[in-house]
Amino acid sequence: MKPFVRFEDVALSYRDDGEFAIEDVTLSIAPNEFVAVVGPSGCGKSTMMKLCSGLRKPTRGRVEVAGGAVAGPLKIVGMAFQNPTLLPWRTTLDNVLLPLEVVEPYRRTFAAKKRGEYSDRAMALLKTVGLAEHADKFPWQLSGGMQQRASICRALIHEPQLLMLDEPFAALDAFTREELWCVLRDLWAAKPFTVILVTHDLREAVFLADTVFVMSARPGRILARKPIELARPRDLEVTYSDGFIKLVHDLRERIGTVRKAHGSVRKPAEPAR
Fold this sequence. Notes:
The protein has helices at 45-53, 92-102, 106-128, 144-156, 174-190, 202-208, 242-264; strands at residues 5-12, 22-29, 34-38, 60-65, 68-69, 77-80, 162-166, 194-198, 211-215, 222-227.
């Protein structure tokens, strides 16, 4: 099976001095695979998302999505972030519909003849995440968890082949976060698509992903690829199992080792005077 996402010896520098945010990154992600990327802060997890979506070009190496080199922003990508970024003057329904107003080929037919059809699609998504009764409300009338549900619906409304999630649940309380894990799990199970989830939450990574990639400290490199061999479908009870806890501890040890190694090579202390 050909990979859906492929990085080959990829490096990216945001600066002219040659300092890299990520370096020597090689990985493959299968079609409809759910991948999580974890690592210490500043290791380049979000940089990888920019490269996948075409928002940045690599300084070195090659990034491929859906069998072709990424040369610019991709229309087949949906994205959701830590903050929902809903437009405050639009209702929940209109926020979800927004990508169809701006992304081709939907844009050409949205206003002319298909708004009703697209609204039905959006309402079906909102119903799936429990927001159908809130379609006419504005963002300020929704809780943080509701806003994030709407944000995920907006990322999925144009049926992307690749969903990019940048810490989408980090700002939520623990109970809401776990509830949305299950929402995302069910959406992906109902109609699979390729997912790249960037997260600091190791429990979240193990619960949701098929594979977890562990990154080093800056410049980010892939240190480990960890398959998550837990049966699907997974419910929250699995998070209390010995196998789940062992996986989380293993990932935590790997990242802890990275942090210690990074700290040990940082600028030495000045000599006493």
